[in-house]
Amino acid sequence: MKLLMFNTQPYEIETFEKIADDLNVEIDCIEDGLSLDNVDKTKDYDAITIQQHGKLEGDELYKRLAENGIKQISLRSTGYEIIDLDLANKYNLKVTNVSGYSPRSVSELVLADTMALLRRLKDYSKREERNDFSWTGAQAREIHNLTVGVIGAGTIGSASARIFRALGARVLVYDPVQRTDLADTVEYVDVNYLLSESDVVTLHTPLTPEMDRFMNFDRFKKMKNDAIFINASRGGVVDTDALVAALEAGEIGAAGIDVFDGEAGITSVDLGDKGYDNDNLKALIAMDNVIVTPHIAFFTDVAVHNMALFSVRDAIKIANGQKALYQVN
User: What's the pTM?
Assistant: First the structure.
């Protein structure tokens, strides 16, 4: 069996080589993302996997995949909003993701951002650059005295909830599905109560139509003025204009942002002197009370390996006419 990996990153090559040996398949890798310009490269392959930010749009792209004998699109990521599921269904293309790749990878970054913001590490670092080693205005709070609100307690959100509870925090959850395995860990509440009561709010939801720009200015205003907001889910669940405005107006105290609107062409790329055109991102990076990372919450050894392995396994299953483990349509 031959598989083609689109948008392959250098850090994935060794993993794919090992997977090919272990599963006795042939894996070829290309740097470009899947598009109408290169879709016909799939003609000589049995299955594909992708990992990219740009949407796969247009009937012709899905039609050509099917005409080339491809039965699936396996994403090496959790989010699948880049796929037009209606078109995938129209051409009998099964779509898979890797929702269980490593929940701790994301939740540990959420914890790291929270602790760094509580301890004001970015602020201290900038002060030291000016030879200012004073303590004024930078007294920290301790996690065990805080209330943490988790919006979306799926696989990743529940891992975050458990980590904060283990550190002694009170944990509130807003999610229409109440998990019985979290019964001794969290309190399920409505979103307005969560926002008003939480010292830290962390977002762990997919980008569905209902969640598009879910965190708007009105919801930021409901938060405590010294609360920390964390987003390591999808950029589109936050109105970034509103986030910047809320921070500038002091409606919230700090933010840790791993995903953001317009990240395609920015994250995972060294732009050097070329720079980038994203005013909101520039504003967030300039703030002493904001930590911005380039969509790296998933980027651990365990997660990278599992994302590659799970996507390849499901691609093989579908190509062989079997049911995939992480099928989403």
Answer: 0.88
Structure tokens at 32: 């470009």
229 and 255 Cβ atoms separated by less than 8 Å:
yes
List residues with catalytic annotation: 234, 263, 295
Q: Which tokens hold the place of 276?
A: 């980038």
What confidence tens digit (pLDDT) does each residue in 294-303 have? 999 999 999 9
Smallest CA-to-CA distance from 313 within 71, 20, 10, 67 is with: 20
Distance CA 49, CA 1 (A): 14
- CA dihedral 304→308→309→310, nearest 10 degrees, is 100
Q: How far apart are CA 164 and CA 175, in angstroms?
A: 17
Amino acid at 192: N
Q: Would you say 101 and 78 are in contact if contact means Cβ atoms under 8 Å apart?
A: yes
Angle at 46 between CA 38 and CA 96, to 5 degrees: 85
Taking the C-alpha atoms of residue 302 and residue 106, their distance in angstroms, rounded to an integer, is 12
- pLDDT one-digit tens code per residue, 96-130: 999 778 889 999 999 999 999 999 999 999 999 99
Q: Which amino acid is at 298?
A: F
Strand partners, 255: 229, 290
The answer to whether 220 and 252 are in contact (CB under 8 A) is: yes
DSSP annotation of 209 reads G
**What gap in Å lies between CA 244 and CA 258, rounded to an integer?**
15
Give the whole-angstrom CA distance, residue 305 versus residue 311: 10
Structure tokens of 123?
Answer: 């602020």
* Structure tokens that stand for 125 in this block: 């670092």
Torsion, Cα 276 279 281 285, to 10 degrees, reads 100
pLDDT at 293 > cutoff 80: yes
pLDDT the model gives residue 103: 84
Distance of CA 217 to the CA centre of its chain: 22
Q: What is the mean pLDDT of the chain?
A: 95
Residues present in the chain in total: 329
